[in-house]
Model the fold of this input.
Amino acid sequence: MNVRRLTCHCGLLLALVGAPCIAGEVALPDGKVLSGDVTIAADGSLTIAPPGQPAKTIPLTDVVRATVSPAVASAAGTQGAALTWPWRSSDVGKSRVAGMVKDETGAFSVSAAGWGAWSGVDSFHFVHQMLDGDGQILARVTLPGTDGSRAIGAVMIRESLDPTAPFVAAALGPRGPGRLQARPYPPSKQPIIDIATVVESSKVGWLRVSRQGDLFTAYRSVDGSSWEETGSQTIKMAAKVFVGLASSSNVNMLSGPVRYDNVSVIPGPPATTAAASALPTKGIVLTDGRALAGDVTAITTDTVHFKPTDGGTSRSLPVEDVAWVLLQPTFPNLSSRGGGAGVLLRSGDFFDGELITLADGKVNVVSTVFGPKTLDATTEAIAVALREPEQWATAWHVRDKTGQVFSGPDIKIENDKLLIGKHSIALPDVREVFRPQPTP
Done:
């Protein structure tokens, strides 16, 4: 088996033969990424059905990465703001005319005024639901066929319904498809980040925005199968955010309708076209190669204090049993950095240090070359390396439903269990499988 990464947000790996999920992905060795309904057969082969295209069966040996994502209940059959839960509809900011949404079978048609989200204060109509933690939204957006229409359609993640709230969006409008727009933080005087590629304008396009920690990434696609990244931004937002479909007109007149179909909101670590990491977003990696998701509250000279995200009780671990402390979403190549103690900085630099402690949100490092240094654990430091974990870069990794990662030199499936090294995980508890990284 030669698959590098297999993600199953449904929590089922090989166990649900033939049970489709929405908005899965298959990444191929040539760099192409296919999106669609992905199923995994008992023999390990993948079947993917891209939207509007025939299904394809691909051997695992031909796959670099595969993800299976949960189906999201689509809205159906109502008019106006009475949408099917969990969807809700509201105007954000002041628009000349209130927006209207038609809730169809598997699609939304939205007519809206408002200036959009390009100035310091937003004004648009928002069809939204809540997202807690990491996740992504994607949809196919179709603008009105009238040549003179000024309608704009977008998929968006924003911190609140306040018109000056931080947000990230991928938008389709008169200036062309696949734009990334973002507001890093309030107040309204902060400028909008607007990254656009000069391309031929299109009335139809697939858009996607993902969140992993504070990293937000926008994508566009012409067919919903192969995706192109259009930009990313690191923006601080609350854990619980609003995610949905943002419609407006850049002349603040009622425009539309903008049609959204194939809408999916997918919770959990996003499957992106970038290399993924077996590392937890936050947590620790032990010297035996296991990884635990959670928060490290303190590091002393002999103890690491850790609270797991699965609701378990806080633990105190001997510092010699801990290899890495992950404070923020980390770079996928942390394992290729090499041995040695120190602190990985948000800038990408590594500050070598022989003595490292953490207290009151500050990482204190003592270096024989640079002397003592204090770093903020939320704005400057990303990870603390105390030593190199065993067999990390050359091991298989499996993440379970609690976020714990198990490592081992080999992997196999027996009796509805995934066996990795000395560990056994029930298949319904498996979330991701990572192949060993190739030796540089």
User: Anything to note?
Assistant: Residues 283-385 form one domain. Confidence is low (pLDDT under 50) at residues 1-23, 69-81, 186-191, 194-201.
